[in-house]
Amino acid sequence: MYTKWTSHLKTEDEKKRFENSVVGSRLVLERLRDLVDEGLKILEDRETRFERPNWAYEEASIIGERKALKDMRKLINLDEQVIKNE
Fold it and tell me: Which pTM value belongs to this model?
């Protein structure tokens, strides 16, 4: 079901117990998703100051942060995980 979540486990029993734990943490993961969304909003509102000599590095950093947050958001979206893997 949650392939990335259980890829470190060997037996089906371990995977099932871990999946149950993840599903039982849905409220925590939903709050984490909200925090990730807040972080994405902050990044979207941040302006690049092109007059600074290091603006390209700042922009690259923002792009990297945005990608990491989007990747995390996908991973913690349990509904999306179930749809993809069923």
Answer: 0.75
pLDDT digits (tens, 9 = 90+) for 21-49: 998 999 999 999 999 999 999 988 887 77
Of 30, 1, 26, the C-alpha closest to 15 is 1
- Beta-carbon contacts of 15 under 8 Å, excluding residues fewer than 6 positions away, are 6, 9
Query: How far is residue 46 from each of residues 42, 49, 70, 83, measured CA to CA in Å?
Result: 6, 9, 17, 34
- Alpha-carbon distance of 62 to 40, in angstroms, equals 10
d(CA 86, CA 80): 10
Amino acid at 15: K
